[in-house]
Amino acid sequence: MQLSPIYLLLLTLASVFAFFYKNKMLAWALCVFMFVLAVFRGVEVGTDCLGYQKDYYIIKSVFDGNKIFHSFEIGFVGLIALFKQYVTSLYLPFVSVLFCVFWFGFLKFIKYYNIPLSLALFFLLTQSHYFYAYNIMRQMMALGLIVSVISWLYEKKYVKFCLYVIIVSMLFHKSSIIFAFLCVIHHYYHKCPKFFSKKNMYIAVILSFLFFFTADQTSMGMLASMAGLFYSRYEQYLLGSIGTGVETGYLFMGCQSLFVLALIFLYNNNERNKFEFIVYITGIVIFNVLSAISVVATRVAESFLIFNTVLFPMLMLDKTNKRLKWIRIVIVVVSLVLFFYRYGVKNDGLVNPYYFESRFEE
User: Quick check: is 285 in a domain?
Assistant: First the structure.
C-alpha cells in the first residue's frame, strides 16, 4: 500500500472545505491549490505525461503523426506543432496548457449547474476525475472542451452540440464521440419514463456487473480476434490489454455496483436531476461492461461518469428527499472508500511519485 502525502493533504482540504461549502473563499482556495498542483507537476506524474514526451519532441509539423509511437489525432498533432513553433519547444508548458483546457472547461460546466464549487471539487478528487486529467491528458482535454458547452444540450440545440462533439472528437480524442449519445438520452428520458424507470436501472447495473464477473479470457479473446480483422492504430484499447479488466478488482467493482444500487434505492426521482442521474447510471453500466474487456477501454465511460461531480452535490442538497440523511452518508462514505482503494491499496504508481519541476527544464 502506497499513499502519497499529497493525496492525504488534498483529501483533507477537500473534505474540510466541502463541509463549509457555502464559503466561496475556501472553495476558490481549494480550486487554486488543485490547479497549481496539476500545472506545476513533474514529467513523471501521470502516464500520458511521461509517455507523450518523446512523441512531442519528434513532431515538427502536422504531417508527423505517422512518425510517432502513439496514435494522436490530427488536431492534437497540429496543436503540438503550433505550440512548438509559436510558444516554446519545451514539453512541460504544453502539458500545463492541456490541463488548463480541461480545468476551465470543467469550471464552466460546474458554473452552469450553479452548485457549490467545494462539493464539486470534492467529488472531482474522490471519484478520480482529477487524477485522470494527469493520466489521460488528451481525453480529458477533449472532455473539458465539450462539457464547457453543456448548455447547448439543455437548450435542445442537439445538432449544434453533436457537430461540436464530432469536431472535437475527430481533432483530439475519438472516444469523446460518445458525448453525442447524451442528445438521445436528453430527448427521450421524458418521453419514455418507463424505459428509464428504477426497475430497469436495477436490471442494467446488475446485468452489467454479472457480465464483468462472468466474462473470461476466452470470450474476450474471441472478441479481440474479431476486432483484429479490422486493423486500427487504436486496437491497443482492446488487444493491448486483453484479459486485464479484472485488474480493476472484483472488490472495487462489487463495492461500486452495490453503491449504485443503493443510490437508485435512495433516489426520489426528482425531475431537477433525473437526467444527470440517468447519465451517471449509464456511465456505470458502460464501465462495468468495458471492464471485462480492458482496463484501457473503461476510459470511454469517463464522458458520462464526470456527471457525478454535479449529480452528487445535487442529491446531497435535495431537501425534498426524505432519505436525505442516508443518501449523504452513502455518497460520502463510499466516495472516501473508493478513493483510498484506488490511490492507497491499488496504487500502481501512475501518479506517484509526486514532485515539482521547473517549467523551464527539458
Answer: yes
